[in-house]
Structure formats: C-alpha cells, structure tokens
Amino acid sequence: MDEPQPPTDAEPSASVPPRRFRFSLGSLMVFILTAAAASALYAKIIELLNGTANPISAYDVANVVLIALLLSSTIVVCIRRETVNQGMFQVTLSCVVILATLALIEENLVRLLLYWAQLCFAVLLVLPLVLRRLALDGEETESRRAWLVWVAEVLLGSFANIILVLLGILIQCSPFLIEILLELLS
C-alpha cells in the first residue's frame, strides 16, 4: 500500500494556517503620509468650490476626485504588479501634484501653470525613463539599481494615475461642458 505523503508547498494542508497579513512600520508611515496628502487635497477642493454657483456639491467633487485617484492607482498597481507601498507613494505624489496645480490656478498664475505642466511631464515621465535606462545600462550596484527602478516605477505610476484621473474627470464633466458650450454658442 502507498503511504500518505506529507503535503508539499504546492498543496497546503488544511491544518496549516494561512499566511498572516504583515504591515510594517514603514508601510504604516507611508499610509499616514498618503492619508495626509489625500486629506489636504480633499480640503483644498472643498475650499475652492464652496460658495460657487455650482449644481454639484463641493463634497461630491472632492469625493469623486479622491475615489478616482485611489481607483486609478489600484489599476496601475495591479497592472504593473507593484507593491502596496509603491501604490501609496503614487497616490501621495499625485495628490501633491494636483494640490500644487490647484494652488497655481487659485493664484491665477496662468503663465507659471504652463511651465508647471512641462515640469510635471519632465519629472513624472521623462525622468523615470532616464532612471530606468541608467539602472539597466549603468555600472550601479544591485541595491542601487533596484532602488532606481523602484523610484522610476513610482514616478511613472503617478503620471499614469494623474492622466487616468484627468480623463475620468473630463468624461464625468462632459455633460456640463457641453451645456456651457451650447450656452456660449447661442
């Protein structure tokens, strides 16, 4: 008779408890940073939209922007198979970029806003591509190479995240934009 074989890694036994979810202190600090940046963005959107003759509530707009930011970051993290920390850094960086953009708009610094858009493009798209190229082709140590690739992935993910959020906002606001255009044309 065949003796029962002990379970292998491929087939865990019913008596083996599942792996525990681990959340390190570093991850907790990144989470707090992300929550602070998201809260600041939420408060800034509400501050800018309060008191306007807008049919949409300022709270609704702030909620939609943050939900879109979190969902698009989740999409980017899942597609690119990144870590949770990278996703939280992407949300944080996206919030900071949007906050800075809103501050420029609030101060009516249109000329500076044009350069800000180019700076964001350079930092969030061009720089990560250069970093990845340096990491893959350079004479860097393995740990430095891994760090450069990690930073590049966070920056690229933030760029993708911001583009997805702006596209989503544009799609959601299209009925209002069409209505405004029709009023201007008539």
Structure commentary:
This protein has a domain at 57-185. It has five helices and no strands. It has helices at residues 25-49, 58-80, 84-106, 110-137, 142-185. Helix 2 (58-80) runs antiparallel to helix 5 and helix 3 packs antiparallel against helix 4. 77% of the residues lie in helices and 0% in strands. It is globular and about 80 Å long. The N and C termini lie far apart (90 Å). The chain has 186 residues and is mainly α. The model has no long low-confidence stretch (mean pLDDT 80).
Explain briefly what this protein structure is.
This protein is an all-alpha fold. It has helices spanning about 25-50, 60-80, 85-105, 110-135, 140-185. The longest helix has about 45 residues, at about 140-185.
| Distinct helical segment count | 5
Contiguous runs where pLDDT drops below 50 for at least 5 residues = none
Number of strands: 0
Helix content: over 70%
Distance from N terminus to C terminus (CA atoms, Å) equals 90 Å
The general outline is globular
Quote the beta fraction: under 5%
Rg, rounded, reads 22 Å
| Main sheet characteristics | none
**Class inferred from helices and paired strands:** mainly alpha
Mean pLDDT across all residues, rounded?
A: 80
| Secondary-structure element order, N to C | HHHHH
